[in-house]
Write a structure and sequence with these properties.
Number of strands: 27
CATH class of the largest domain: Mainly Beta
Shape: elongated
CATH superfamily of the largest domain: L,D-transpeptidase catalytic domain-like
Structural class: mainly beta
Helix content: 10-25%
Strand content: 35-45%
CATH architecture of the largest domain: Beta Barrel
Largest sheet: 15 strands, mixed
Radius of gyration: 25 Å
């Protein structure tokens, strides 16, 4: 009986960025070979795995104040030399990978007692045109023979049992190379908060101007293998109601012709279900309890959402964007239904429709002259949205689960939004803060 364990975040946005060359001072040059790492260490050591195909060894390291080699196990990789590029070539891929799923089998199978699925093909593989799937770290019930797998990384069952506690989903980097430099074992990859390399990595992640404190950071890594590199952060944010939101951002880098780094791809995920801190987070950081969202006050207005059908994209020859699985919204909150508020629903539909149709005149007429969002005023917002409407070949906007909270002069509208264009996809809860101006509702602030 196979038990399958999966993990996902409930709001995800994926951005395919233009290949803009940026010289990130403090990061290793893009044309240097080998493995180079920066690992932020706060309270507990950061583990990572290196598989060396030339010696058929899997090594488990931990970076704390110093680098420690925890253990080394014999393994078997693909019977054909070289890095994997297509299905059935019996090669083991090379690069930076992560566990995506965990399988456990109590019966005797070819995968031994456990199997840990790797995310091959990763972003770099896909851009290189590599295909195939089914690459695992798994056990075996047979005698371990070097270079005997179809591309997986195979260990003896007893060795895999020792390694298994470290193999968490989307957490521990698995770096696969042909040869590892021997001096790597003597290096120290610890990254200190606020130093020049730390600041450069935050700049790479687009977070240089965001005041993230050390206690908010769960993980911050910069991983480079040859010409592939990625910057990765997981961090928490707290709102005024002590709700904790978890964020995960990754930026994948590739060399430019000028030997600088350029952004190949970026992902940004948010956990849509917040944690309510039982005690103030600054004093008791890890004391968390889950709490269902309570019913709002009586002034809350709820109206059924209009039936929204996103406009189909025009027929163009461009390649479709990478598929992103949209996660369904949270169940509706238990709130009282009031019949008023129809004019706000009509206003939101006008805003949505004009955005999807790239009708910038109508779209911008929905915004107050006092509008501010993401550091932009109304003119800055107009320039940004005009640029995007010209850049994207099509825009689709769908909204659902509209909740309206209002007074005579102010209103807050929240809904679950699905946005899609030929180069960008996102889904999650959006909020519009409205103000009554000259008898009309206008958007004063917008955030997601």
């Amino acid at each position: 009986m196979i038990k399958r364990f999966t993990h996902f975040l409930t709001i995800a946005s994926i951005v395919i960025l233009g290949l803009i060359s940026i010289a990130y001072g403090g990061l290793p040059p893009s044309n240097t070979p080998g493995i180079q790492l920066y690992l932020y260490v706060d309270h507990s050591p950061t583990p990572f795995i290196i598989v060396e195909k030339a010696t058929q060894k899997l090594m488990l390291f931990e970076q704390g104040e110093s680098l420690s080699l925890i253990n080394t196990w014999s393994c078997a990789t693909g019977e054909t030399p070289g890095t994997k590029s297509e299905s059935g070539d019996t090669k083991t891929p090379e690069g930076i990978y992560f566990i995506t799923e965990i399988f456990q089998d109590n019966e005797i199978t070819v995968f031994g007692s456990r199997a840990f699925h790797l995310n091959y093909p990763n972003i770099f593989d896909e851009y290189a045109g590599h295909n195939g799937d089914g690459i695992f770290i798994h056990g075996t019930n047979k005698t371990l023979i070097p270079y005997s797998s179809n591309g997986c990384i195979t260990l003896n069952n007893r060795d895999l049992e020792q390694l298994a506690p470290y193999l968490a989903v989307d957490t521990v980097p698995v770096i696969i190379v042909e040869i590892m430099e021997e001096q790597l074992k003597q290096q120290n990859f610890a990254l200190s908060y606020g130093d020049s390399t730390f600041n450069t990595i935050m700049e790479t992640l687009g977070l240089a101007n965001q005041p993230i404190k050390p206690e908010q950071i769960e993980k911050l890594n910069f991983l480079k293998v040859g010409s592939q590199a990625m910057a990765w952060i997981r961090y928490d944010e707290y709102d005024a109601n002590s709700l904790q939101y978890k964020y995960d951002k990754q930026v994948f880098l590739t060399p430019s012709p000028a030997k600088n780094w350029r952004t190949l791809y970026s992902t940004h995920k948010q956990d849509m279900i917040p944690d309510l801190l039982a005690i103030h987070p600054k004093k008791y950081k890890n004391t968390l309890v889950k709490e269902a969202l309570a019913a709002p006050p009586p002034e809350v207005v709820v109206a059924p959402p209009p039936k929204v059908v996103a406009a189909p994209p025009p027929k163009v020859a461009a390649a479709p964007p990478a598929e992103v699985v949209m996660v369904p919204p949270l169940p509706k909150r238990a709130i009282a239904t009031i019949t008023k508020g129809g004019e706000i629903i009509d206003f939101v539909e006008k805003w949505r429709k004009s955005w999807a149709q790239k009708d910038m005149k109508t779209y911008m007429s929905c915004y107050s002259n006092n509008f501010r969002s993401s550091g932009l005023n109304k003119n800055g917002w107009r320039q940004k949205k005009t640029y995007l409407s010209q850049k994207y070949q099509y825009i689709q906007v769908g909204i659902d689960n509209i909740v309206v909270e209002r007074t005579n002069k102010k209103a807050k509208v929240s809904f679950f939004q699905k946005y899609k264009s030929d180069r960008y996809q996102t889904s999650g809860t959006k909020t519009l803060q409205l103000v009554m101006e000259d008898g009309k509702w206008m958007i004063e602030k917008e955030y997601m």
